[in-house]
Amino acid sequence: MTHTVYYAASSIDGYIADEKHSLDWLLTRDNDGAGPMGYDTFIAGVGAIVMGSNTYQWLLDHDPGNWPYDMPAWVVTHREFPAWDGKDIRFTSMPVPELHAEMAAAAGGKDLWVVGGGDLAGQFADHGLLDEIVVCYAPVTLGGGAPVLPRRLELKPLELAMNGELACARYAIVRG
Q: What is the DSSP letter of 109?
């Protein structure tokens, strides 16, 4: 069964990027991609991804020659962006329920990943289309920036683990 998952890293004070959209605070952290709630294990189960324009811009700015995903990707935006040659990247401003249905059809039974940002994940949650949240907390405070999820949601803890320097938690969205 396809699940929609928001998988993100966060500072312990709840930010996914600092006020300058930097992830420098995260990129130097020790963790194991194949370890508990690690990226390698997670991405193997993902069939389609979606991200906001700030996340896409970050990828363009920091590694423009290397698109890191093999599955279909949607970028929710009203801006014009270049695409990576030969990669299945779709720019859209369609309503979230239509986008979710299109992604699920393309995912081949695998999970959907809301890559970022937090407001985009919140939009999926607003429509009852977000099933889980996985957050790996880095031992740092940022004091401001992009919040991990700017919504009030009730969550049910499913799993807790340490992965290198990261304290990881997986939650189900409580509906109703």
A: T
In this structure, what token pair is assigned to residue 98?
Answer: 């239509």
By the 8 A CB rule, do 6 and 137 touch? Answer: no
The Cα 135–Cα 66 span in angstroms is 25
Q: What single DSSP character describes residue 97?
A: H
CA distances from 25 to 137, 171, 173 (A): 11, 24, 28
What confidence tens digit (pLDDT) does each residue in 58-93 have?
Answer: 999 988 888 999 999 999 999 999 888 889 999 999
Considering only CA atoms, which of 147, 102, 148 is closest in space to residue 129?
102
Q: Measuring CA to CA, how many Å separate 99 from each of 24, 50, 106, 142? A: 31, 9, 11, 32
The CA distances from residue 7 to 97, 99, 112, in Å, are: 19, 18, 10
* The model's pTM: 0.95
**pLDDT tens digits along 107-138:** 999 999 999 889 999 999 999 999 999 999 99
Instruction: Determine what percent of the chain is predicted with pLDDT higher than 70.
Output: 100
